[in-house]
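Sample pair:
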Amino acid sequence: MPGIRALRKIQLGKEVTAGTPIAATTIWRGLGTIEDQREVVRPEEDVGYISGQDRTYTPKLLAALSMESVPATFEQLPHILNAGVKLVETGVADGAGSGKIYTYTFPTTAKNTIRTYTLEGGDDQEAERMEYSFVDSFTLEGVGGQAVMMSAEWFGRQVALNAFAGGATLPTVEDVIFSLGKLYIDAIGGTIGTTLQSNTLLGMALNVKTGWVPKWTADGNKYFSFNKITMPEVTCALTFEHDAVGAARKVDWRAETARLVRIIFEGTSLATPGTTYSKKTIRIDFAAKLDTVSKLDEQDGNDILTATFRPRYSATAAKFFEITVV
C-alpha cells in the first residue's frame, strides 16, 4: 500500500555524541520531510560518444530537513535554539516559581556549543534517518491577529532507511500569539525593556543564519567530518504604523543611531509565579542599527513602513542578541 500524508511525522532525538545516531524521543508538532542532498557528478570526457557514457561518482553526502512554517510554541522552539544557537538544556530556577529560564545568548568573543540531533522522518510506507543534525537557519515571524510562526532549515550527515523509533511522545504545546506581544525600544546606553511602544507594531520577520556549517575532510567518509561556527547573521524587520514611533525609525536610520530592542511574547500563567516571570514567555533582546527603512506602504487605509534592524555587538550596551524562553 502507498504511504499517505496523514501518517507522516518527524521525530527528534538528542545525540549524546555528535554523529552517533540515537532513538528519537519526541515528535515535532509541525510539517517537514527529509531530503537526500548527496552530490552525484557526471564528469565530462572526450571519448567519441555523442550519447555520453554513464560514468558517475558521489564525492559527498548531505542530508537536509526543512521544518516548514508552523505556529511557534514555547515548548518546541528550544529544539531549534539548542541545535543552532547554544546548548541550554537545564533551565535556571526563577526563585520559587514553577517556570524555568532558558537563555540562548549568541556568540561574541567565544564559540558556543550546540546539541546535535538524530532526526527521523517519513510515513507509513518508509522512514528515513539523518544523524549529526544541526540548524543552519531559522525564522520567527508574525502579524497582528495571528500566531507567531517558526520555521527552520536543518543539515545532517546522510540519509539512511531506518524504522521510526518506538515510544516517541507527542508533547503538549502552547502556541505563541503575536497580539500578546510587546515591543520596547530604548537608547543604546539605556536600560533595555524600559520604553514600551504601544499600538504601533504590526508585524515582525526575524531571520537568523546561525553560522554553523558542515566541514568535509579526508577522514575516510563521504559525509562531513564535523560542523563549525562562522559568523551568525541576524535581521529583524519590524512593520510599524506610520506614527511617531515609525517616523522615529527614519531618524535613527539616517543618523546611524543604534538602539536596544526587546520583543516579548507571553502565554498562559505559570503554575507558580517566579521572581521575574509569571507567564510562559519568549523574550528577544538585541542591540542594532537599521539597515533600511521602506517607503510608505498601506494597510487597511493606514500608512505603514518597515524598518529592518541588523543586530551587531554594541560595546556601549555590551550586548549582541539573545532569546530567552520561559
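The chain has a mean pLDDT of 97.
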